[in-house]
């Protein structure tokens, strides 16, 4: 039986996505063995994250400034807007460096099962943003999951009232595929071959 301090840390880490109790325990042991070398840098990075990072009031990206670096970059094409479910998807697309426009993060996907409604996501903000004009194309870059596609269809319907071209990622995406897990080539292909929402 480990000490209370260790159990508390294991419990906190095992709540992280992708880390179950077993791997959390391994990570904690690794850190304890290296508490002189690895721990200070980790603590500093965590404290910095807490202090310095904010959510962009325009697009929902996480950055050190609001508006974020992408929203504030004048070289970005302000006429193209790419809608994603999560910040991780924005980062995945932006790593691929193929989309020159700006983004809008929904903060999740519609789900009848989990009770996620349009007003629980940044959908009203999206409609307001598109309604202000100056945008020619909205790319719906939802995950190729059932809920992702339901969300894309809902958005396409709501966006119909605006004079914008609505496209979505090509279905080179594997079924059930989450953007965040795709390699850059697949992602680039899906973005390049994007097509109008039918
Ligand atoms: Zn932003």
TrEMBL record:
Zinc finger (C4-type): 56-71
GO biological process entries: DNA recombination; DNA repair
Classification via Gene3D superfamilies: 3.40.1360.10, 6.10.250.240, RecR Domain 1
Keyword Zinc-finger: yes
Single GO MF descriptor: zinc ion binding
Protein family (similarity comment): Belongs to the RecR family.
Family matches, as InterPro entries: DNA_Rcmb_RecR, Rcmb_RecR, Rcmb_RecR_Znf, TOPRIM_dom, TOPRIM_RecR
Span of domain Toprim: 79-174
Protein purpose: May play a role in DNA repair. It seems to be involved in an RecBC-independent recombinational process of DNA repair. It may act with RecF and RecO.
Species per Swiss-Prot/TrEMBL record: Novosphingobium flavum
Highest taxon listed in the record's lineage: Bacteria
Pfam name, any one: RecR_C
Keyword annotations: DNA damage, DNA recombination, DNA repair, Metal-binding, Zinc, Zinc-finger
PANTHER family: RECOMBINATION PROTEIN RECR (PTHR30446:SF0)
Protein's name according to its UniProt entry: Recombination protein RecR
